Amino acid sequence: IKLQCSICWEDFVLSESVRQLPCKHLYHTPCIVPWLEL
């Protein structure tokens, strides 16, 4: 199974910073933080 960020659609790599929201979805930290700061 390949996991992808739903914002940029790139696959996650083990060395990347990832954020999990309460809904259990995973995103690259640089992708989701701007949305959370709105």
Automatic annotation (TrEMBL):
Pfam families: zf-RING_11. Keywords: Metal-binding, Zinc, Zinc-finger. GO terms for molecular function: ubiquitin protein ligase activity; zinc ion binding. The keyword Zinc applies. It comes from the Eukaryota. One of its GO terms (biological process) is ubiquitin-dependent protein catabolic process. Residues 4-32 form the RING-type domain. GO terms for cellular component: nucleus. InterPro entries: RING_finger_E3_ligase (IPR051834), Znf_RING (IPR001841), Znf_RING/FYVE/PHD (IPR013083). This is RING-type domain-containing protein. It comes from Bracon brevicornis.
